[in-house]
Specification:
- This protein is α/β, with parallel strands linked by helices.
- It is 48% helix and 15% strand.
- It has helices spanning 16-29, 39-46, 64-70, 75-84, 97-108, 144-162, 183-193, 197-200, 226-250, 255-275, 301-317, 319-327, and strands at 4-7, 33-37, 50-53, 90-93, 118-123, 131-134, 168-172, 204-209, 221-223, 283-286, 291-294.
- It starts with a strand and ends with a helix.
């Protein structure tokens, strides 16, 4: 496996936490990691890690498209070029999501036949495989044909990433009936119901699903447009954070609740770990011709270790190769 190109300048906690995660990944996972960023900033932190020099940084609030076009020596662009040029097996960034996507798309290119890339985010389901939600923010406005392709790519991802032999694909809507939803949802439902592409990918279309189904074991892949998907993702993140904080806060309100907390905490810690975004590792940008992982903006060193673990596993499973094989015939 070639080194992982890690954008050391991207994220709220860059570069310290990002580089710390890189060192841990090398030690704990046995992978090679190459940092991408400003050498003068990384020199005190890098240790024996290699550095791909990049003089510019694209900030979290910068416009993605124009920044990628103008800042050609940015850490994001150089990371994407490392994958394109065969110097890295994957790129990872916790920085500007739109710029990460644009860098990967413009430098790696799309897999032949892919209309639009989509962000596939694993949503935790305690005790079961995660639900793959896509698109989680790459395409705010979509066409039915794109959603059909998202379903196809999501099914391949769920099969190769989580070992689900026959992924169940659901279309996010406001009701289970095929007559429910926006014109986009209704047209997409008709396409998915009559599609051979999903069958060829080894998947089954189970019809419309609702927001309450996303964190259940009843569906493996949930397909929607990027605007809706991103709202769902952020709503779930906020809801889970509020719930966890409320539970932890209740344990310290009296001696009785403190005692209850001491008893319950060992049982709750595995659940907390499942719901912690740092343990997810990141979302994969499906449809670009290379491995691109997008980590949470507030990623810690632990999140970076897990992102490197996901990159290693996706590389070993040859997910990009499977996507090429699935999309090209369709």
């Amino acid at each position: 496996m070639l080194p992982i190109a890690l954008d050391a300048m991207g994220g709220d906690k860059a570069p310290e936490e990002i580089v710390a995660g890189a060192h841990r990944a090398v030690e704990e996972l046995g992978v090679q990691v190459t940092l991408v960023g400003q050498p003068e900033v990384l020199e005190p932190l890098r240790g024996d890690l290699e550095v791909i020099p990049a003089s510019e940084v694209i900030g979290m609030s910068d416009d993605p498209g124009s920044s990628v076009r103008r800042r050609k020596d940015s850490s994001l662009v150089r990371a994407a070029e490392a994958v394109r040029d065969g110097k890295a097996s994957a790129m990872i960034s916790a920085g500007n999501t739109g710029a990460t996507m644009a860098s990967a798309l413009l430098r790696m290119g799309r897999i032949t036949g892919v209309s639009r890339p989509a962000i596939a985010t694993p949503i935790p389901v305690p005790g079961h495989n995660p639900t793959v939600l896509l698109d989680a923010g790459a395409n705010a406005e979509c066409q039915p044909e794109w959603l059909l392709q998202f379903a196809q790519m999501g099914a391949v991802f769920a099969r190769d990433r989580y070992g689900i032999e026959t992924p169940r694909v659901g279309l996010l809507s406001i009701g289970e009936e095929s007559s429910k939803g926006t014109p986009l949802v209704k047209e997409t439902h008709a396409l998915l119901a009559g599609s051979d592409a999903l069958t060829a990918a080894g998947a089954t279309f189970i019809g419309n699903v609702e927001g309450r189904d996303v964190m259940t074991p009843d569906v493996d892949v949930v397909v929607t447009d990027g605007f809706t998907g991103n709202v769902v993702l952020k709503t779930l993140e906020g809801g889970m954070r509020t719930l966890v904080n409320a539970i932890l806060g209740a344990f310290g309100t009296s001696p009785e609740t403190q005692a209850a907390g001491d008893v319950l905490m060992p049982a709750l810690l595995p659940l907390y770990a499942t719901l912690d975004p740092d343990n997810t590792g990141g979302a994969m940008l499906l449809g670009v011709d290379g491995l691109c992982l997008i980590s949470h903006g507030s990623s810690s060193a632990t999140a970076i270790v897990n992102a490197c673990r996901v990159a290693k596993e996706l590389h070993e499973a040859d997910v990009v190769g499977s996507l090429r094989a699935a999309v090209a015939p369709a």
